[in-house]
Amino acid sequence: MPIDWSARLDGRGYHATSVSRHATESRFEGPVRVADDGWVEGDEIIAFDPMQPSVQLRIKVGDAVYMSSTRRGQPAEIARIESFFAKGVGGDIWFYNTFFWRPEQLRLADSDPWDPRELFLQTSADETENSAAALELIPVRVVDTNDIDSLVDAPHSFFTRRTWDPASQKVSPIVEDAPPPPETMDEDIVLGGAAAAAPQTGANANAANPNASPPPTAQAPRTARRNLQLEKAKERISLLEDQMRAMQLELKQVGILAAHIQALEAKLALVAN
User: Fold this and answer.
1) pLDDT tens per residue, range 16-64
2) CA-to-CA distance for 179 and 168, rounded, in angstroms?
């Protein structure tokens, strides 16, 4: 989301006290509308997606947003919205936000389990540069909308669909809902077994219906035996084919030898005459 904000640069590319200080004022650039009575559901506004102007977005307090400056050459940042307010003659929408710190902006102990792409959020008004005491690890989720990776300027590739869990001290992918199991064909149909009869329950189901498919526990050993027999049959056929090719070669050699013998016999007959 395009945001009007400025950051002071230093030799490392970012200055921690200006980029990540507490409660920075930022202004939303673009069409924004609110309810007649002010806010929508409290601290929430409805804006339009800069990448898809026809798509409306609900932006609320606590959301993590990707912010790119409207000034050329200014770094892009990920920030968390703290509160909204109106400002100026036209009632432009502004908000207070805190920025996430990157590992290269901090002094992190080598023993700490952090990842080079992890994000840290300042939680106090302490503006001392690289003040580790003012930080808290929180889960961060950047939605893969509009190919967010292509929007984040190199060399910073932030986590997408990943979270940091302070309890386990691990970076993990967000768990997705498991897909439904694929539909499978009845094994008896695949193997050419008997047609299935009406389903029955109870201990005497197989006895009442002799054509019913055996339970999966009974089918598994039978299938394994069939597969083993099939593999042995393939090996036997391959061996017979090799033997047949060897016999054909021997017969060819015998034929050549017989032709030579006939030629020699013809020559001997001429000499004898």
Assistant:
1) 443 333 345 555 555 454 444 444 445 777 766 666 667 677 777 877 7
2) 26
* pLDDT one-digit tens code per residue, 56-109: 777 778 777 766 655 555 556 677 777 777 666 666 667 777 777 666 666 555
Residue ranges per domain, the chain?
A: 2-173, 214-273
Write the CA distances from 26 to 43, 130, 153, integer angstroms.
15, 22, 20
Measure the CA–CA gap between 137 and 151, rounded to whole angstroms: 24
From CA 55, how far away is CA 47, in angstroms rounded? 9
Tokens of 136: 């808290």
Q: Which residue has the higher pLDDT, 40 or 166?
A: 166
Residue 203 pLDDT exceeds 50 = no
Q: How far is CA 114 from the centre of its chain?
A: 21
- Confidence class of residue 164 from pLDDT cuts 50, 70 and 90? low
Q: Say what the pLDDT of residue 220 is.
A: 59
pLDDT at 118: 64
In this structure, the strands spanning 32-33 and 44-48 are antiparallel
For residue 213, what are the CA distances in angstroms to 40, 52, 201, 217? 60, 56, 12, 11
